Amino acid sequence: MKKETFIIGLVGETGSGKDTVAEYLREAYGAELTRFSDPIKKSLRLFCDNPSKADQAWLYLAFKERFGEDVLHNALARHIKGIDNDLIVVNGLRMPVDEKFVHSLPNSIILYVTADQKLRWKRTTMRYEKDDDNQSFEAFKKFEATTETERHVPEIGKRADEVIHNDGTLEELLEKVDVIMRKYGIEKKEKV
């Protein structure tokens, strides 16, 4: 008999470490990773190599206006139904409707990964993942405070089932993840 699928919705500010957590869950626990932003990024990459967060926010709002708030949720729900894995991570919750969607799925939790804002800014300036990663601290703060897809993250985090403060080392972050996984009875996959 197949074990019931456990779904983790990951939420966190830019540079908080949520992608590191997602990747660790994939590597150590065999999780299938998916994101709300995957269709947006795929669309934008038809036009530019390295879409910025501002580009992603703009396209999300255009999709939402044209097709309704649940356009990405409907696509993700169909995608999740086709996944044959007992652990699925939905990374990148940004809006209250994302939180509601994940909690509507059976056997799901929201995990909030957060860190001090200045530390998060320093991390983003070193990673060069997106075109707008190398911005001033003032621009970073303004973006987080004024962009719709960023300003809801802390409020979702306040309602999260689990919270990780990622202000320490990578090893400390991963141990915090392991503690949460043990709490829900999820074991690491044996390396082959």
What's the short version?
With 192 residues, the protein is an alpha/beta fold. The protein has helices at residues 18-29, 38-44, 53-67, 71-81, 96-104, 117-127, 137-146, 148-151, 153-158, 170-183; strands spanning 6-12, 32-35, 87-93, 108-114, 162-165. The radius of gyration is 16 Å and the shape is globular.
Which helices and strands appear, and what pairs or packs with what?
Elements: E1 6-12, H1 18-29, E2 32-35, H2 38-44, H3 53-67, H4 71-81, E3 87-93, H5 96-104, E4 108-114, H6 117-127, H7 137-146, H8 148-151, H9 153-158, E5 162-165, H10 170-183
Parallel strand pairs: 1-3, 1-4, 2-3, 4-5
Q: Can you describe this structure?
A:
- It is a single chain.
- The chain has 10 helices and 5 strands.
- It has one domain: 3-Layer(aba) Sandwich (Rossmann fold), CATH 3.40.50.300.
- A 5-stranded parallel β-sheet has the order 2-3-1-4-5, sandwiched between helices.
- The protein has 192 residues and is of the alpha/beta class.
- The chain has helices spanning 18-29, 38-44, 53-67, 71-81, 96-104, 117-127, 137-146, 148-151, 153-158, 170-183, and strands at residues 6-12, 32-35, 87-93, 108-114, 162-165.
Over all CA atoms, what is the radius of gyration? Answer: 16 Å
Beta-strand residue fraction: 15-25%
Give the N-terminus to C-terminus distance in angstroms.
23 Å
Average of the residue pLDDT scores: 89
> What's the arrangement of strands in the largest beta sheet?
2-3-1-4-5
Main sheet summary: 5 strands, parallel
Structural class per helix/strand content?
alpha/beta
Overall geometric form: globular
Question: From N to C, what is the helix and strand string?
Answer: EHEHHHEHEHHHHEH
Helix content: 40-55%
The CATH architecture classification is 3-Layer(aba) Sandwich
CATH homologous superfamily placement: P-loop containing nucleotide triphosphate hydrolases
Return the domain count. Answer: 1
**Uncertain stretches:** none
The CATH class is Alpha Beta
Q: How many H/I helices?
A: 10
> Strand tally, please?
5
